[in-house]
Write a structure and sequence with these properties.
By secondary structure, the protein is an alpha/beta fold. The protein has 17 helices and 25 strands.
């Protein structure tokens, strides 16, 4: 072993080292899968050769608009080809991609555009009013709007802004991609809901995204040429990195603008979809689909589900329909899925009820993660794996974010003790599989969207009749969870539930708006802290 102390002449160089980046997948895919379908959306059907050319043109067009390496390019686009192309085209010009949730309210989008210092924003025609209102409400320089028309869905270009296809047509098809010099360079920034204040900007690096694409190939048991349906919004953890992963395998990305059971069945039957990811609400829509929306297909569709633990009853109902579901768990801070409920062969012999209960566990760490377990957040000690002792889910490894943009205090707190603190409470079984018990930050997960109870409470407290309120999650058969508000009125004041819901809807995105409002005295501790655990019990009995 002595010679290892002297590694003179064994340094990294261009011949033996290149920064890891998912951009490499598409450069390779251009050559290996040139004639293979890469991106499909109705009549839009592009091969890998055409996909690569369009991505190169996008990178060139962004440079022509003044985007420089390190600048941020935002998008407000559903799951359309332009959103897929932006995942490669934006970093190919050295910029950082910021995909914005199309369901957010004006004030939040204004904050994101300003905080990220977006230089350009690509906007779907249907969302132009939202983008314009947000830009008008911004502090600081406004980004340039590029309109992304979608005539197939009834949204032709307005002519008010430079249009995406026109920009691509006038750009350089042979643009020389700007590859990262260091794999730690920032690739994208995703804003995540928190329990207080404004959303935090989660920064991804090229290395983490690349390793995520390799790791999910193993976890999802992927082989060459999968056909992937974009159910997971590409503004959620960059679509769980799946768009970056597909060129690695010569996969086809099938875009889906409107997520309905009919569109899912049509994509499986017509395009041969083999894989998709989605929240449990998507599984429920398939289970509850009317016969007219169902289509026959002759293969098993592999599904990753996350956003909330799927009920065992849902898993039991969907599998006979031709879907094999694997629960995965993660956060924006872990590039999406970082924990999987890996199926064990001996589970196959279990009675159905017990087998589906096992599949409903949260799971174990995925290959790109170095550590994932349940720990005591105060002592940072491993909790007993006895299926009873509660602790916090922790992560460490290459699949964890760089940190929160312009927020070193929050970053330091999130990485306290050398682990990323998820904020999610869980137990751990003797076989190391975890199971989430509660959200310690009181986050409500509605249809796969994170809703901050504190944010909703802040809006409700502005209602002239409300003196005190608390918002908790209530189970919902369609959305998984929905916000449920408990309110106390000011003396002599009152308001109907409908009035309060309308008030909230005027200030919040629809998925954040309470679906139930109950007037009652709020239970409090001796120090005046509202006891939300009691309200959760009440909410479930409504």
């Amino acid at each position: 072993m002595g010679w290892l102390r002297d590694e003179t002449g064994l340094e990294k160089n261009a011949a033996n080292h290149a920064p890891l980046t998912p951009l490499s997948h598409l450069r390779r895919g251009r050559d290996l899968f040139a004639d293979r379908l890469a991106v499909v959306y109705g009549t839009h059907r592009k091969t890998y050769a055409e996909y690569y050319e369009r991505v190169s043109r996008l990178a060139s067009a962004l440079c022509n608009l003044g985007v420089a390496p390190g600048d941020v390019v935002s998008t407000i686009i559903p799951n359309l080809p332009a959103q897929v192309e932006a995942h490669f085209g934006v970093p190919a010009c050295g910029a950082v991609l910021n995909t914005i949730n199309t369901r957010l309210d004006v004030a939040t989008i204004a904050y994101i555009l300003g905080h990220a210092e977006a230089k350009v924003v690509l906007v779907d025609t249907a969302h132009l009013p939202l983008a314009q209102e947000a830009i008008a409400a911004m502090d600081g320089p406004a980004p340039q709007i590029v309109e992304v028309a979608d005539p197939q869905a009834g949204y032709p270009a307005t002519g008010d802004f430079p249009e995406y296809e026109d920009l691509l047509a006038s750009a350089d098809a042979h643009f020389d991609w700007i590859m990262p010099e260091d794999e730690w360079e920032s690739l994208s920034i995703n804003y995540t809901s928190g329990t207080t204040g404004q959303p935090k900007g989660v920064v991804y690096h090229h290395r983490g995204a690349a390793l995520n694409t390799f790791g999910q190939v193993v976890s999802w048991r992927l082989t060459l040429r999968p056909v992937y349906l974009t159910i997971v919004p590409l503004f959620h953890c960059n679509g769980w990195c799946h768009t970056w992963m597909m060129p690695l395998l010569g996969g086809t990305v099938v875009c889906c603008r409107d997520i309905t059971a009919k569109n899912i069945y049509d994509a499986i039957a017509d395009e041969g979809v083999t894989h998709f990811g989605g929240a449990p609400i998507v599984l429920n829509s398939i289970v509850n689909a009317v016969d007219a929306d169902r289509r026959p297909f002759d293969h098993v569709v592999e599904v990753f589900t996350a956003g909330a633990p799927p009920p065992a009853a849902t898993l039991r109902a969907i599998e006979p329909l031709g879907f094999n579901v694997t629960q995965v768990y993660g956060l924006t801070e872990t590039y999406g899925p970082a924990n999987e409920c890996m199926f064990q062969p001996h589970w196959e012999a279990l009675p159905d009820e017990e087998r589906y209960d096992m599949k409903a566990r949260t799971g174990v760490m995925m290959p790109m993660i170095e550590g994932n377990t349940v720990m005591d957040p105060d002592t940072m000690a491993q909790v007993p794996m006895d299926a009873m002792t509660q602790g916090e889910i922790m992560f460490r490894g290459n699949g964890v974010m760089k940190g929160y943009l312009k927020n070193p205090k929050a970053t330091q707190e999130a990485f306290r003790g050398g682990w990323f603190h998820s904020g999610d409470l869980a137990i751990q079984h003797p076989d190391t599989y975890m199971k989430i018990l509660d959200r310690s930050k009181d986050i409500i997960i509605s249809g796969g969207e994170n809703v901050s109870s504190v944010e909703v409470e802040g809006v409700l407290m502005a209602h002239p009749a409300i003196s005190l309120c608390a918002v908790v999650a209530k189970s919902d058969p369609k959305w998984g969870e929905v916000p449920c508000a408990f309110v106390e009125f000011k003396p002599g004041q009152s308001a109907s539930a409908e009035d309060i819901i309308t008030f909230a809807r005027s200030k919040l995105a629809g998925f954040k708006t309470p679906k139930h409002v109950i007037e009652r005295e709020l239970p409090k501790t001796s120090t005046g802290k509202i006891q939300k655990f009691e309200l959760r019990r009440v909410a479930e009995d409504i």
